């Protein structure tokens, strides 16, 4: 047994350092590719529908960044966003993506909203916030159609700066959503400290929704939002039985593969026009 555990532990050490090295190499590769990226050519925005219940109508879209690098092919946002933050490129990237998202959503019926993810660096940068508000003015979009999504982790650490930025955004008429709700340390604490219009319940609660505890949690958050007059979106709805549970809990807004995967603008535009929502 002793001999075995020795080899195992040595084996693991080797595997670990090789993995670690590979990870560093891939981070460097992403960093380089990102630094040299042609944002207009390599990046695209995919739109995922947000659905209202009980009508089951599309009320808006969440913009999700897609990067198709000529060197690295598809790199998921969970990988490149942290690197863009670390290298300081996030400012340029956010502003670029937001401008395109607004241009595209402007081509859709005016009742449809745009949800756009902001990173920690965005919500603590007065410069980024000013640039986002400039775009709203220049592109002449009704700010009430826009919802910026932030996570709790993005305000931890620089709470004061974030609070100032969020208040500036909200004063301009845009809405704010607390994303990945329920996954952080003190989501409830931020709910009344920050000027929040909407909560997005993390999809981990929905995947376990056969479990009475998960149902109870979702039910509590939905009721809490209702009593605070905050909107509530349940994310990650994939199956009809999950939808049934959420309908019984009287959830008003849902999102997930059941209703639509994130898709390119052309696809959502075609179906929005076809649906006759114009
Ligand atoms: P998020 O904001 O929580 O976005 C939801 C993620 O869940 C998206 O992954 C979406 O494709 C995925 N999703 C939606 N419905 C379902 C479902 O029913 N089942 C499952 N399994 N997944 C579903 P994606 O597009 O890979 O984005 C990952 C994260 O990257 C986002 O999480 C967001 O935090 C970040 N991100 C994406 N685009 C941007 C961006 O433009 N700016 C910033 N700062 N972050 C972004
Ligand atoms: Ca989001
Ligand atoms: Ca989320
Ligand atoms: Ca997330």
UniProtKB/TrEMBL annotation:
Domain named EAL is located at 23-276
Taxonomic lineage of the native organism: Bacteria, Pseudomonadati, Pseudomonadota, Alphaproteobacteria, Hyphomicrobiales
The identity of this protein, by name, is: EAL domain-containing protein
User: Which species is this UniProt entry from?
Assistant: Roseibium porphyridii
Q: Which residues of the full protein are shown?
A: 369 to 646 of 665
């Amino acid at each position: 047994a002793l001999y075995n555990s020795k080899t195992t532990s040595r084996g693991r050490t080797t595997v670990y350092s090789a993995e670690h090295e590979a990870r560093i190499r891939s981070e460097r590769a992403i960093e380089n590719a990102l630094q040299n990226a042609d944002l207009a050519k390599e990046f695209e925005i995919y739109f995922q529908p947000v659905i209202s219940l009980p009508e089951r109508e599309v009320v808006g879209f969440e913009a999700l960044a897609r990067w198709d690098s000529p060197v690295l092919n598809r790199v998921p946002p969970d990988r490149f966003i942290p690197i863009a933050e670390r290298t300081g490129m996030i400012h340029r990237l956010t502003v670029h993506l937001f401008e395109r998202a607004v241009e595209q959503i402007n081509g859709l019926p005016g009742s449809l909203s745009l949800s756009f993810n902001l990173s920690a660096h965005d919500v603590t940068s007065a410069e980024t916030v000013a640039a986002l508000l400039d775009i709203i003015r220049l592109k002449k979009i009704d700010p009430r159609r826009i919802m910026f999504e932030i996570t709790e982790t993005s305000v931890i650490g620089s709470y004061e700066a974030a609070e100032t930025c969020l208040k500036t955004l909200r004063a301009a008429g845009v809405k704010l959503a607390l994303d990945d709700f329920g996954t952080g340390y003190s989501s409830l604490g931020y709910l009344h400290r920050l000027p929040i219009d909407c909560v997005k319940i993390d999809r981990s609660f929905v995947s376990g929704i056969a479990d009475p505890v998960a149902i109870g949690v979702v039910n509590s958050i939905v009721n809490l939002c209702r009593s605070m007059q905050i909107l509530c979106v349940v994310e990650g709805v994939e199956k009809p039985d999950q939808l049934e549970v959420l309908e019984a809990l009287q959830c008003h807004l849902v999102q997930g593969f059941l209703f639509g995967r994130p898709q390119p603008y052309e696809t959502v535009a075609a179906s929005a026009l076809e649906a006759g929502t114009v």
